[in-house]
Amino acid sequence: MPPPLRIGVVSSGPAEFSTIHLTCTDAGHLPVAYFYGRSLRSGGKNLPDAGETTAAVLGAVPPGMDLLLPGSVNGLARALQSYRLDLLIVFGFAWKLPTSVLALPRLGVLNIHVSMLPKYRGPAPLLWAIRNGDPSSGITVHRMDSGFDTGNILAQQDGIPLADDISWTTYCAEAMPVVGELLRRSLDRAAAGDQGEPQDHSRASYAGFMEAAFSVIRWSDSAGTIHNQVRTHRFMRSPDSPVARLDDTWLRIIRTSLEPADVFPVVCGDGRPLWITESAAGRPPEAV
Predict the structure, then answer these.
(1) 91 forms bridges with which residues in the sheet?
(2) What is the pLDDT of residues 189-223, one digit of tens each?
(3) How far from 60 is each of 19, 34, 94, CA to CA, in Å?
(4) Are 23 and 186 in contact (CB under 8 A)?
């Protein structure tokens, strides 16, 4: 029986860490260190909920496990070298890793991406799936290379439903069992030196961060477009947006419905009504 792989995990929350840890240990491998991605960019500011998430991640860390919070690619590289990893697994980490870091683990780096690659490459695939009104999404486990989500695919599965009132908790209930199964298959392939299948780059699309103008609702848009805009911000837990002007009042729009509700609807640009079922006082947006 081959020796267990020494595995490092870079991720962004307790559900991700727990799923990866359980999958690795069930497969007979040895996670040796967690790395929490506390910023969107190397050297960037901490995420607004970094402290809260760090505390939650600590609750998912097994006794004796190291948890590191690298602030830059250089700091991450130094830590990875010290652990002499066979494999690094990344899930929900927005930094683009240079080839010098990808080369540190003996068997390379695997990334868990929440889309059916090559669709929605980039840091925000799930946000764009919600924004575009996709009824479902996929999961892909692929090898990381010098591009952004361009590496060879080891396993993927489509058909994870995106509920109308989607939250990270409800999404995880559907997605994490799939992540575990796909990762288990990918670990076997990686351990055997399997490089996976190339992506069809001609079918690629990109899912970047939301633009500033996306925080402001335009009633000239279609009802479906605005409804999905609100869903996307609610999924992101946006504290102050999206905002919309109704008569002379600015509101933060928290929840809408395309079906009749016990409130007066707003007629949108396509002539369809949209019911605002939850809102709060808002502020006029800065110039966008």
Answers:
(1) 11, 112
(2) 999 999 999 999 999 999 999 999 999 999 999 99
(3) 10, 10, 21
(4) no
